[in-house]
Amino acid sequence: MLADRLVAWQRQQGRHHLPWQNTRDPYRVWLSEIMLQQTQVSTVLGYYDRFLKAFPDVTALAAASLDEVLTLWAGLGYYSRARNLHRCAQAVANDHGGQFPQTAEVLMTLPGIGRSTAAAIAGFCFNERTAILDGNVKRVLTRVLGWDEDLSVAANERALWLAADAVLPEKASDMPAYTQGVMDLGATLCTQRKPACLTCPWSDICIARREGQPEAFPVKTRKLKRSSRESWWLWLEHEEQVWLVQRPATGVWAGLWTLPLFDTEALLDEAVRALGAQSPEIQPAIKHVLTHMDWHLHPRRSVLNHLPAATDLRHLAGVAVGADEHGIGRWVHVSELASVGLPTPLKKLLPAG
Fold first, then answer.
1. N or C: which end of the chain has fewer CB within 10 A?
2. Nearest alpha carbon to residue 136 among 179, 174, 97
3. CA-to-CA distance for 53 and 20, rounded, in angstroms?
4. Which residue among the candidates 33, 105, 157, 281 is catalytic per the annotation?
5. pLDDT tens digit string along 234-243?
6. Beta bridge partners of 338
7. Rounded distance, CA 151 to CA 149, Å?
């Protein structure tokens, strides 16, 4: 009954206007699923369109360089998604003949594809009867089922997966509408706060609504601990060129290009003196809010009248990313900054050219 109601509701009242809907192309579904992880639909729309124009199919994405992918991804956040997106495209192209596997079990073996994403691709594109369980769906199902177990406990989450599988539609042909429907409920009606229960197709059978406490679900006691960090940015310029360094392959802004970062202002001043640059000018501080941390960035702009030795610059690049010796750095003209993969706060700071 749960599934039949939801399928009928989705076909009549669910969302049908988004560009990744009404398609059974696994490349487009996969791309949207990865982009939508912890990211709002309104933010994803522009990125999705630009990615498809640059990489119209999985083989085009596989053939691109990681720098090209990161440049297009810059500003969308959670950059490990972009690196896994590139690795996954290469795996599909090289190991699967350019065709996405048709079962969730095999899809889960690809880089960056977890259980819920694999189920979404398999359900939308190949009618496989397998449940998704992202954050929105957990909220919907725990409310309608009155599931009050603590989802911070792994065993309870595994049990919810079983419950999600148990309410799937019997007909495989209903899987795309059911999968989209449970997503639509979480995004439009069964929201975290002030859910629109009166217009929900499950309103009369929802246990959380019957008990008068839908906002108490899902139950998750373990909270994410936030931290704070301070860093100093060296904005080094020479003849309308900016010195950028590439971040390591792991961690925040992995693989992106940024200004050299220092843990203290004293270390930045020491680097400026060693390079023979002008005394740095203080720029307005930037607060960059991440999921787990507030990052306070203090830009300092300094101009070089003469280029220092290349080895000194490479050493600066290494120091800026926490390496002992040389790192990867390069001069970029201000007119070319838009074509480089930069983190969002740096895009706002540097001149557009």
1. N
2. 179
3. 14
4. 33
5. 998 989 999 8
6. none
7. 6
